[in-house]
Design goal:
The structure is a single chain. The protein contains two helices and 17 strands. By secondary structure, it is mainly beta. The protein has a 15-stranded antiparallel β-sheet with strand order 1-2-13-14-15-16-17-5-6-7-8-9-10-11-12, covered by helices on one side.
C-alpha cells in the first residue's frame, strides 16, 4: 500500500473526489518570446508540484496555501514549502538548513503516526550534493536502503527541482490582458479513477498580488471542466 502511494505521489497529480469533472524549452532560458499572441514564460521561476503553485517571488511571506479540493501546503515565509497534505492518510515534509537548501524529504502518515520513507542530502561548501541517503520503514524500523556519495551531479537548486518542478510543465504562456497563465496537460488522473482523457487546457487566473486566484481545467476533447480555488495565509 505504501509503495503504491509513493509511486503515485511522485508520478501523477491527485485530485479530490469533491472536484470530479462535470458537464458545465530550456528550463533555464531567461528570455521570453511571443507564441500565438501570448508571452511564453520561464517555468523554472514557478513552483509546480502536482498543480502549479505560483511564482517563487510572489510566495514569500506565506504560511500556507490551500488549493480547495486538492492539496494544502505549508511555507516557512521564505517561499520554501515545508509540508504538503492531501485527502489521503499520507503527507510530505521538507526540511531546510540555514542556507535554504533542502536537506531532508520525508513521507509520513497520520495514522498510525510514522515516517515510512526519507531522503537526506549532504552538501559541500560550494552547494554541490556530496551524499544522498535513502531510508525506508521495514518491520517498524527505519532502515537505510541506499547511500550514494559518488557520481552525483546535483546541486542545491537541482535538489529542489526534483520536488518542486513538474518536468512535464515545459510550456507556460501568459495572457497579460486577462491575467491568465495557460498550459496544457494530457490525460489528467483523478483520485477515484476518473480520467479527463486527451488534451486539457489549464488556465490559472492571477489576483492583484500576482498570485493564482483560481484554476480552470477544460477538456479540449470532451465537455468536461472543473474549477479549483486557491486560498492563502500570510506569515505572522
Amino acid at each position: 500500500m505504501k509503495g503504491k502511494f509513493l509511486l503515485l505521489f511522485t508520478t501523477i497529480c491527485l485530485f479530490s473526489c469533491d472536484n470530479l469533472p462535470n458537464k458545465e524549452g530550456d528550463k533555464h532560458k531567461s528570455e521570453t518570446e511571443i507564441v500565438e499572441g501570448l508571452v511564453k514564460i520561464n517555468s523554472s521561476e514557478y513552483l509546480s508540484r502536482q498543480l502549479l503553485i505560483g511564482k517563487k517571488e510572489d510566495l514569500a511571506g506565506l504560511s500556507s496555501l490551500n488549493i480547495k479540493g486538492d492539496r494544502h501546503y505549508s511555507f516557512d515565509g521564505k517561499a520554501n514549502i515545508t509540508a504538503s497534505y492531501d485527502m489521503t492518510n499520507n503527507y510530505a515534509v521538507y526540511s531546510y538548513d540555514e542556507k535554504d537548501r533542502l536537506i531532508k524529504f520525508e513521507l509520513k502518515q497520520h495514522n498510525p503516526a510514522e515516517t515510512y520513507h526519507e531522503v537526506i542530502y549532504a552538501y559541500s561548501p560550494s552547494d554541490s550534493v556530496i551524499e544522498i541517503k535513502k531510508s525506508h520503514l521495514e518491520n517498524g524500523v527505519m532502515q537505510i536502503t541506499e547511500i550514494k556519495d559518488e557520481g552525483i551531479s546535483l546541486d542545491h537548486t537541482g535538489v529542489k527541482e526534483l520536488y518542486f518542478q513538474d518536468k512535464d510543465l515545459n510550456q507556460l504562456y501568459l495572457d497579460e490582458e486577462n491575467r491568465e497563465i495557460i498550459t496544457y496537460k494530457n490525460d489528467l488522473i483523478f483520485c477515484c479513477g476518473v480520467l479527463m482523457k486527451g488534451k486539457n487546457k489549464l488556465s490559472y487566473y492571477l489576483n492583484e498580488n500576482g498570485r493564482i486566484d483560481s484554476l480552470m481545467i477544460r477538456s479540449l476533447e470532451e465537455n468536461d471542466q472543473m474549477k479549483l480555488e486557491y486560498e492563502y495565509d500570510q506569515k505572522k
